[in-house]
Please model this.
Amino acid sequence: MSQNRVSGSREIRSIPNYLVFAILSTVFCCPPTGIVSITHAAQVNAKIAEGNLPGAIEASKNAKMWAMISALLGGFFIVIIFLYVVLVGGLSPATR
Model:
């Protein structure tokens, strides 16, 4: 019976909240989707404290998904801005 408690305890501790990833993706990549990620990440620990493990797992998955979306959008915008500066900036009258 004590093994079930230990196993359950390990399961609870293995649910990541992705809060650091959410904050970094908000600051450096795409704030709108990063904020959504932060809200889901903040819900993970609260749901664990309530004993709602399926809700905590779902919030963890959503936090990771939105942080990844934020990071990918940020990377996409950086590439677009770089291409714009290289292609259009090189054609500006100031450089002729």
